[in-house]
Write a structure and sequence with these properties.
Elements: E1 2-8, E2 14-19, H1 28-39, H2 41-49, H3 56-66, E3 75-78, H4 84-93, E4 102-106, E5 118-120, H5 128-136, E6 142-145, H6 155-176, E7 182-188, H7 194-203, E8 204-210, E9 221-229
Parallel strand pairs: 3-4, 3-6, 4-5, 6-7
Antiparallel strand pairs: 1-2, 7-9, 8-9
Bound molecules: S-adenosylmethionine.
Keywords: Cell cycle, Cell division, Cytoplasm, Methyltransferase, rRNA processing, S-adenosyl-L-methionine, Transferase
Domain Ribosomal RNA methyltransferase FtsJ: 51-229
InterPro entries: RNA_methyltr_RlmE, RNA_MeTrfase_FtsJ_dom, rRNA-MeTfrase_E, SAM-dependent_MTases_sf
Amino acid sequence: MTKKPGKAGPGGIRVLKTRIKKKSGLKESSRRWLERHMNDPYVQRSKAAGYRSRAAYKLIEIDDKHHLLKPGMRVIDLGAAPGGWCQVAAARTKSTPEHPNVVGIDYLEMDAVPGAPVLLMDFLDEDAPEKLAEALGGPPDIVMSDMAAPTTGHRQTDHIRTMHLCEVAADFAVSVLKPGGHFLAKTFQGGTENSVLTMLKQNFRSVHHVKPPASREESAELYLLAKDFKGRS
Ligand SMILES: C[S@@+](CC[C@H](N)C(=O)[O-])C[C@H]1O[C@@H](n2cnc3c(N)ncnc32)[C@H](O)[C@@H]1O
């Protein structure tokens, strides 16, 4: 492994460029992944700031631009592990362990985030919506989902599975959100079904696709942001 000075990344942090030798014993795809990960300025910045994931910066960048999270708001975080979005949401809504107003769900275990209890269960379980509503103690102002299906190695299958999670999350959001609330969910370029977009456009005053700078340019990942829920009639 060798290190060379690199360019300044986001936040102006200058990182050392790490190279992993081709003869490292790793498979070429793993070697490239590790090299990219170690040289990713968002990974280094999130470690320095104490965030659980580089994904935390996706929410920070979206929220800095769209001003969704406010003190006192109730938030549901679908697909919460390892907890970066929970950390950002808890800090921006000023949630406390005594009166948590952020609740997450994931079937993977994660370390607790103060002010953001997380249910250890599959969001697709029949009783997940009820359990989430119970844990939050009132209707959410924001439903956000960074859920991604486990990768199979077949890109199209992975995208279809994650799209399905996005659709279920969208249906959930319109069934629980407060009027004026927002829905944010991971999706893929060209992936969102027209039926979901139409449903969201009927239920929210504006619907956008957003790609925060922290979402890798070469990735087809996008976020669907539906703002200002009209309410259930
Ligand atoms: C990209 S990660 C989320 C990262 C998170 N936003 C953060 O900042 O740390 C996607 C997560 O979605 C979770 N997930 C995928 N399908 C799920 C499901 N059906 N129910 C609950 N969690 C799910 C995965 O276990 C994974 O932890």
